[in-house]
Hints:
Distance between the termini: 25 Å
Largest sheet: 6 strands, mixed
Strand content: 15-25%
Number of helices: 9
Number of strands: 19
Amino acid sequence: xxxxTILARLAAAVDANFDREVAFLADIxxxxxxxxxxxxxxxxxxRAFAARGYAVxxxxxxxxxxxxxxKASPMVDVxxxxxxxxxxxxxxxxxxxxxxxxxxxxxxxxxxxxxMWTHPPYAAVIRDGWMYGRGAHDMKAGVxxxxxxxxxxxxxxxxxxxxxxxxxxxxxxxxxxxxxxxxLRGYRADAALIPEPTGHAITRAHTGTLWFRLKVRGxxxxxxxxxxxxxxxxxAMRLVDALHAHTxxxxxxxxxxxxxxSVPDPIKFNPGIIRGGDWASSTPAWCEVDCRIGLLPGTEVxxxxxxxxxxxxxxxxxxxFLANNPPEIVWHGFQADGYVLEPGSEAEAVLAxxxxxxHGGAMPERRSTAVNDTRFYGLYFGIPALCYGPKGExxxxxxxxxxxxxxxxCTLTIAAFIADWCGLKPRAG
Length: 429
């Protein structure tokens, strides 16, 4: 771990730059970087990185061989050519330390009705020590931490003694293909840190995720003779009920899982979007429901997909119309494995020491029932992957917010981690 003198210099640098860091976070929150609309923010970040002297690589998902990789997820509703990734490289001369990837996603989920927010969702309002805004918590605060941790090292008169790659990616909320794209582009390091908003806890494990679309047909008739037709929305509801039952069975089995036995109902199922019908006085001829379901670490994605298909097929058999008009399942996003960060890695020990220096106590751990990008590094490319970041509230909710003071603490923790993991050299110039 960095000695007390170096830590004090890093802390002073974080404090001196902190107003700039908060302004940087506000700037990036003001970009509505929704899926398919991330390029303006990524271009802004590319310029910000270039101004810091980094070598900047800007590329799209269409420029890497995603289709050739077995862990790429389908992108049904968005053009890969419009999905921009940015990697900013600090390359050490005669490196002596261990290299590092710092990665954060800048895509955000839709904000919903703006009038249901206390503050406009992209206004980055600061009130009572919190910044409000879609993406402020998940995870633009973490992106700000990693950028300004590197800034603090520079301002303190040092440079990392190994290569460091600052990566801002898309698709974390829908496929994970942004993270995979950086690896397919060739970026590797001795460890990766993803500062998702964990409240200064290490993510010991995360569940996997599947996205799928149920497509159901019906027979439209005037509602006055509804018994002569078939209602696609009601048929879809029957399938949703069957998937709820399927999820209950999976959660009963999860009580024996080595990492999730103590987590109540770790597998979450959600029908998230519904579309259907053409007229209120006609039985609907069509319905589509976009759904999400989790899977535990150790469960094969193909096995989880087969379970969903089986539950839908069996429910359809019990319905007179669906039995002869089978619903369709379209896999249109996440096909993500769960992941466990096995205890004992050197990278985790270094992060725990940095946490203890800044926070004065042991680093807690968490088990997540949502997915993050660490799986790509840890499962498929053999890179120890740490998920640890600042404190906030309201991911995917109204009035999403991040703690300003925790932003400061997390920035210092990451700076201390970089100093220890990568080593430091006096900065030239």
